[in-house]
Design brief:
CATH class of one domain: Alpha Beta
CATH architecture of one domain: 2-Layer Sandwich
Largest sheet: 4 strands, mixed
Distance between the termini: 46 Å
Strand order of the largest sheet: 1-4-2-3
Structural class: alpha+beta
CATH superfamily of one domain: OmpA-like domain
Low-confidence stretches: 1-34
Oligomer: single chain
Length: 162
């Protein structure tokens, strides 16, 4: 009796695993009418190359977390996009350069991502659509010197589909 039950269970599992009907056609890449990439599903693939939405990083001065005026238009454009697309979700990933203690850099990366979130909220983005996270110096270039490290002091804007 026990062997029969085991065989029936295995046979059921094999048959379920061999099913040729996808469970979710909309998520299947290559299926006509379904998006192949995140950009397609959000409509970001149709952006002109000069669109502010193609710019996904906001850079900061050393040891600072205030959004600089030259990045305000980029932040506003992403805020407007999020406000206009209620299903869009965005993650703001804060980074720091290698200088400073690990804990300090994590806190600085978080302050940077929260600063961008605040600016997006002021520009109309819904708070529930924005997540902040800090990587600190985890992805920093350890070989940079001085101003070369400016690429590490940033918040990256990353979209996801709900």
């Amino acid at each position: 009796m026990k062997k029969t039950l085991v065989y029936v269970s295995l046979l059921s599992a094999l048959m379920a695993g061999c099913s040729s009907t996808p469970l979710n056609d909309a998520a299947e890449p290559g299926v006509a009418g379904s998006p192949n990439t995140l950009e397609e599903s959000l409509g970001l693939d149709k952006l002109r190359s000069d669109s502010l939405l193609t710019q996904r990083s906001v850079y900061f001065d050393f040891d600072k977390y205030e959004v600089k005026p030259e990045y305000q238009d980029i932040v506003n454009a992403h805020a407007q996009y999020v406000a206009d697309h209620p299903n869009a979700k965005v993650t703001l990933k804060g980074h720091a350069d290698y200088r400073g203690a690990h804990e300090y850099n994590l806190a600085l990366g978080q302050k940077r991502s929260v600063s961008v979130k605040g600016a997006m909220n002021v520009s109309g983005a819904n708070d529930d659509q924005i997540e902040t996270v800090s990587y600190g110096e985890e992805e920093a270039n350890q070989n940079c010197q001085g101003n070369e490290c400016s690429q590490d002091r940033r918040v990256d804007i990353s979209y996801e589909v709900e």
